Each structure stands twice: as structure tokens, then as C-alpha cells.
Amino acid sequence: MASHGPRQDPRKATWEDLLALDEDVRAEVLGGSLVTMPAPLPRHSRAQRSLGRFVGGPFDDDDGAGGPGGWWIFVEVDIRFGPHDIVRPDVSGWRRPRLPSPGSARPIDVAPDWVCEVVSPSSASRDRVTKRALYARASIPYYWIIDPDARSLEALKLVEGRWLELGAFGDGDRACIEPFEAIELEIGRLFLPRESEPEM
Predict the structure, then answer these.
(1) CB–CB of 166/159 below 8 Å?
(2) Cα(189)–Cα(146) distance, rounded to whole angstroms?
């Protein structure tokens, strides 16, 4: 059974190593290390799905049908930044002119225009440190970090190679956040209702 976290290997892992895994194994390659990930908890999955609905709805699904449109918004697709950095963000987005034919691309070799990671206890350091640095090196303009436990969203914008905080938003906030400022996002709707959360 695969262990979670980086696997020590004298040879740096590549896309071929990901292809060799069983189909039900969720994994990425970070800095040449193969990193496996546990299946998401319901609160994690809910945040992914809600973001796909509230952002992907107007900007992707409703393109040409009343929404702002202009984007592809995908959940957990493989993105290759280089031979030894292949990630599967929770949600990512491309402006359509930059990715005109995404249908069968795997991995996608075009860096996204926006990435969102939903943090969990097992991924928090990786999302906030390792991936944050990787996404800056890849010149991704926007990075959102959603924390279902804290019921919060942090939005970052890359300015001259450094992350600028656009804001940190909590459960009761409504905000217009770049690059999707054409809509108002109700932060609390990204998460499971409070009454469905188990008591700690």
C-alpha cells in the first residue's frame, strides 16, 4: 500500500511514474518526488464542488448563456509544469484563448490562469509552502487557498514574482475576488452547513 508523503527515490519521478500507478491512486510529482494523497473527506469534496458551481457555473458552464464566461474550470486535472513537477490541483482555471482544445489533454502542459487548493491536515504544508512556491515559479497569476476547517478563503495575486494578498475572507463574507470579480461569492456557501459538522 502506498504511503502518504514524498517517496525517497534515487531517480526523480516523472509522468511515467504516475501512469504506472493503479487508477484509484491519487498522486502528484513534486520536485521529482512521488506524493500520494488520501481520498478527500466530505468537507473537502463539498468545497471543491461548491467552487465548481459558484465560479465554474457563471464563468464556464454559462459561457454564452448569460454568465461572464471566458474560462475553463476543471476539478482535479493533471498539470505538468516540467518533467518533475506534475500536480493535480483541487480546482483550476484557464482563460479559453490560452487553452483552446482541452478535451483530451492529459497532462495539460499549459499553466493555468488560476489555481485553488482546498487544504486538509495532511496537505496544509504542501499547499501553503511547496505548491505556493511552485505556482509562483510557474507564473500562475492567481492562487486561492480554501480551508474547510477554518471556513476561510485566502486569495493571492502574483505581482513581480511575489504573492500579494488580495484578502482573507470568512464564513459570513460576501466578496468580489479577482480574477472572478464579476460575481459576488458568498464564502459560507462553499462549506457544509454548520449543523452537519460533527461536534469536536
Answers:
(1) no
(2) 12
Residue type (1 letter), 169: F
How many Å is the maximal CA-CA distance in the chain? 53
What pTM did the predictor assign? 0.90
Instruction: Kindly tell me the burial class for residue 8, based on how many C-beta atoms sit within 10 Å of its own C-beta (0-12, 13-18, 19 or more).
Output: exposed
Sign of torsion over alpha carbons 122, 128, 129, 134:
positive
The cell 479559453 sits on which residue? 96
Residue 93 in contact with residue 113, Cβ under 8 Å? yes
- For residue 66, what pLDDT band results from cuts at 50, 70 and 90? confident
Q: Please report where in the chains the cell 504542501 appears, as a residue.
A: 126
CA distance 18 to 14: 7
Rounded to 10 degrees, the C-alpha dihedral 166/126/55/180 comes to: 20
**Quick one: cell of 184?**
459576488
CA-CA-CA-CA torsion sign (67, 116, 139, 17): negative
